[in-house]
């Protein structure tokens, strides 16, 4: 589009997203990679929560471009993702007055890439992944810490990645880049494709 210049310029949405995230890392005080991910349960009731984006894979990667985060596969979000095979998320950077919205299909990442990310985490976080039965009822904080002590004794200082913990790769069918405009006349560009093998169509949207 002739007026897609400046921060919106480029023919690769993943490169634009990477650039925006890099800029946010310089201005956001906490967790510039935080995103609100939305799913639906078996009854179609929406659910949303904050997670941390861990990687943006470029279009030159084997995935062809995707957004990766990690979680417990027994969690509510994971069960809803497995049921629908789809998810959406938004990243909002108040310091930049920008946001990115993504909708797409979701697949697991539970191979060497997940192992490498798990190994990069702090020991306490790795043990916490073993100890937490995410989204399940918890009797008390004391019960949780008792479980942490148990898995620490069981798995030692180099725990392997739990089989119930790993990544999800969101392959987008739609990406929207939004920037705040004067008098609420915001700039919005939507990238959309029918499937991951198709070309992107870019449309400017009304504020």
UniProtKB/TrEMBL annotation:
GO MF: FMN binding; pyridoxamine phosphate oxidase activity
Organism whose genome encodes this protein: Rhodobacter xanthinilyticus
Role: Catalyzes the oxidation of either pyridoxine 5'-phosphate (PNP) or pyridoxamine 5'-phosphate (PMP) into pyridoxal 5'-phosphate (PLP).
Protein name: Pyridoxine/pyridoxamine 5'-phosphate oxidase
Family stated for the protein in its record: Belongs to the pyridoxamine 5'-phosphate oxidase family.
Highest taxon of source: Bacteria
GO biological process: pyridoxine biosynthetic process
Note accompanying the cofactor annotation: Binds 1 FMN per subunit.
Pfam families in alphabetical order: PNP_phzG_C, PNPOx_N
Residues that hold substrate according to the record: 54, 117, 121, 125, 184-186
Sorted UniProt keywords: Flavoprotein, FMN, Oxidoreductase, Pyridoxine biosynthesis
Subunit-structure text: Homodimer.
Residues annotated as domain Pyridoxamine 5'-phosphate oxidase N-terminal: 21-152
SUPFAM superfamilies: FMN-binding split barrel
Residues bound to FMN: 49-54, 70-71, 77, 99, 134-135, 178, 188
Ranges where the Pyridoxine 5'-phosphate oxidase dimerisation C-terminal domain occurs: 165-207
Obligatory cofactor(s): FMN
Cited InterPro entries: Pyridox_Oxase, Pyridox_Oxase_CS, Pyridox_Oxase_N, Pyridoxamine_oxidase_dimer_C, Split_barrel_FMN-bd
NCBIfam families: pdxH (TIGR00558), PRK05679.1 (NF004231)
EC number annotated for this UniProt entry: 1.4.3.5
Pathway given in the UniProt record: Cofactor metabolism; pyridoxal 5'-phosphate salvage; pyridoxal 5'-phosphate from pyridoxine 5'-phosphate: step 1/1; Cofactor metabolism; pyridoxal 5'-phosphate salvage; pyridoxal 5'-phosphate from pyridoxamine 5'-phosphate: step 1/1
Record's catalysed reaction(s): pyridoxine 5'-phosphate + O2 = pyridoxal 5'-phosphate + H2O2; pyridoxamine 5'-phosphate + O2 + H2O = pyridoxal 5'-phosphate + H2O2 + NH4(+)
């Amino acid at each position: 589009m002739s007026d897609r210049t400046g921060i919106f310029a480029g023919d690769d949405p993943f490169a634009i997203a990477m650039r925006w995230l890099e800029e946010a890392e310089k201005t956001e005080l906490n967790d510039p990679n935080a995103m609100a991910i939305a799913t639906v349960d078996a009854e179609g009731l929406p659910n949303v929560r904050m997670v941390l984006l861990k990687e943006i894979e470029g279009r030159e990667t084997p995935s062809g471009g995707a957004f990766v985060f990690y979680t417990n596969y027994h969690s509510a979000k994971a069960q809803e993702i497995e049921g629908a095979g789809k998810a959406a998320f938004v990243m909002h950077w108040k310091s930049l007055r920008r946001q990115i919205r993504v909708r797409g299909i979701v697949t697991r990442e539970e191979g060497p890439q997940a192992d490498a990310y798990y190994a990069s985490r702090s020991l306490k976080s790795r043990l916490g992944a073993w100890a937490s039965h995410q989204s399940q009822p918890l009797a008390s904080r004391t019960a949780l810490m008792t479980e942490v002590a148990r898995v620490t004794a069981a798995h030692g200082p180099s725990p392997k990645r739990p089989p119930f913990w790993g990544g999800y790769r969101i392959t987008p069918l739609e990406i929207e880049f939004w920037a705040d405009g004067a008098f609420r006349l915001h700039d919005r560009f939507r990238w959309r494709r029918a499937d991951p093998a198709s070309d992107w169509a870019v449309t400017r949207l009304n504020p």
